[in-house]
Amino acid sequence: MADDMSPNLAPMFMERQLGALPDLLGLEWEIIQKGFAKGRFRVEPRHMAPNGFLHAASVIALADTACGYGCVASLPDGAGGFTTVELKSNFVGTARDGHVICEARLIHGGRTTQVWDAEVRHEESGKLMALFRCTQSILQPRS
Questions:
Q1: What does the angle CA 73 – CA 76 – CA 1 come to, to the nearest 5 degrees?
Q2: N or C: which end of the chain has fewer CB within 10 A?
Q3: Domain chopping of the chain, boundaries
């Protein structure tokens, strides 16, 4: 559901995230545009749980950030921002090396809510790791 005519805002979001959690986790963005976001991180020790497997929170951070950045790029005219009101993830795989990639798509873009779906995969193998869905509440400016 990406809008091929909308600009790629990835460089702006890379700059805006400096010093925040997405930056600390090394999240990188290839595409952020209306209706679509694509990003990744290289698996490093900071992404791992003590048991040696990828920490679920690392995967959630990637998927939730992709959906959040995509939401900002897709806000309706006059909106003042958004807040996540629900998220869910099903984990079906993991990674110990390589890159983790996420593609997020706008499923519903209304005046008051957006629903986003994301798939998280191991980039090198293409193996599905997680399915993610979230609902964003669109905030209106205060009068």
A1: 55
A2: C
A3: 10-139
- What is the full DSSP assignment across 67-106? HHHHHHHTPPTT--EEEEEEEEEEE----SSSEEEEEEEE
* Helices assigned H by DSSP within the chain: 10-16, 21-24, 56-73
- Residue 81 has a pLDDT of 96
CB 22 within 8 A of CB 67: no
pTM > 0.90:
yes
| Structure token pair of residue 19 | 């010093």
Average confidence (pLDDT) over 38-59: 97
* H or E, element range at 32: strand 28-33
